[in-house]
Amino acid sequence: MHRALGALGGVVAAGTALAAGYLVAGLTGGPWPVDAVGVQVIDRSPGPVKDWAVRSLGTADRPLLRVGICVTLVIVAAVAGWIGARGHRRTAVAIAGGLGLVGLVFAIVSRSSAASTVDRLLPATVTLVVAVLAMALVTHAGPAREPGDAEQPDGFDRRRFLLTVSALAVVGAGAAGAARFAGGSGQELRARVRVPRPTDAAGPLQASLDVPGISPFTTPNAKFYRVDTLLQVPRIDPRDWELRIHGLVDKELRLSFDQLLERRLIERDITLTCVSNEVGGPYTGNARWIGVPVADLLREVGVRQGADAVKSTSVDGLTIGTPLAALTDGRDAILALAMNGEPLPFEHGFPVRMVVPGLYGYVSATKWIVDFEVTRFRDFSAYWTDRGWSVEAPIKTSSRIDVPKGFATVKAGPAVAAGVAWAQRRGISKVEVQVDNGPWQPARLAPVDGPDTWRQWTFRWNATPGTHKLTVRATDATGELQTDRQASPRPNGSSGLHNTVVMVE
Ligand SMILES: Nc1nc2c(c(=O)[nH]1)N[C@H]1C(S)=C(S)[C@@H](COP(=O)(O)O)O[C@H]1N2
Ligand SMILES: [Mo]
């Protein structure tokens, strides 16, 4: 019995240590050791696991990774507590120390947005110290002081043990509770930013079709897909933010957030797409961005001969490589500071990110950008390129059926299908729908907003009882038809036609 209690003690010790570390992470902005481990898991996962992780990171599996790591820890801690209750107290404490050390090592090698080394290592250090102390405490609380004591026939002082463990649990819960307030939400950082009026504003929004279930032309910020490799979203104070523009340039430039706001600002609707998006998938969204044209900044610093790339780095050290040509060929590549009329949400790169029409996010859309180096592709390799994705990746013409959803039941008679199609930089000129193996029929298109956004479409058809397959294809504004050749996302984006099967009754 007391061994089971010992295991419980181990779990409480681990929980208290993790809670203490979480609190310190909230205070310092350094990585919680669990997250430091998680980021390494993400960075080091092999191909398919990585693809899965990246694809699902924006959704429920981000917490899942944390939960997985915590469950593993708790199991080991329970075993340590159990061993401790069998009298091997030093071993139990050593295991706790070992776990804490692992966290510290991961924090040392981790990509982190923490401001200083102390901030980066403090959460893991505190976790380690609390883990050792807490494990020592619980493994010493149980064993009876007087062997053979009549009240403790099995040599285990249950009362003292439970008191100690309860006290520890209260401390842990207190730390966890305090952590919720410690870092704050950081929203005051965003609230302080006043989004300036753009020098060159976008026109009124008029490209929107309103069909129930269709993706709205503008994706609300809260619904915008999210893909990155972080468990802890950076909360950068714009007053501390600085962008360094350097490399193959005539004169280096360091820009503060206020200095960025003083430049020429353009407002544009641009549809962002993730290379990991499967045919028919959700990892694409359209927003109205305000930002400084990258071309203006490049002109200011003077690009030297021989440069063909920009290597941009986010605050956590992740790198992205973008062709210089895409930043200077006249398209609206921007350092964005507003998204749909608000400062960027933290999840989407606050305070500043890059947005480049026509390129998948992983080669262009650096969130939390802090460094911008003009360079040559042959002189570096970027984070995703190191993981098997193409160095250059223009967005492929794609179309998606939003309604009806796959395997939906539809009433017989006149029915509506609707969705979106995108071919950023080229624009969409035609969308067609095929019912079963019938002829391709034109869908109705929303008005053109610009070449860099998706276009909504609707299609009326007469639904007859039975099972039917709807397939969609788009033609870009250069007249090129979307390919029906199926390709998976890796290495440079999925292709193939999206279809959906519906039951008509
Ligand atoms: N710092 C940083 N920026 C990043 C990424 C990242 O992992 N880290 N992911 C990129 C990828 S793969 C995509 S598709 C877009 C997604 O931007 P969103 O999360 O705002 O939709 O951001 C890009 N910028
Ligand atoms: Mo992406």
Automatic annotation (TrEMBL):
Gene3D superfamilies reported for this sequence: 2.60.40.650, Oxidoreductase, molybdopterin-binding domain (3.90.420.10)
Biased composition (Polar residues): 480-498
Keywords: Membrane, Transmembrane, Transmembrane helix
Domain Oxidoreductase molybdopterin-binding: 232-381
Segments crossing the lipid bilayer: 64-85, 92-109, 121-140, 161-182
Region (Disordered): 477-505
Protein name in UniProt: DMSO/TMAO reductase YedYZ molybdopterin-dependent catalytic subunit
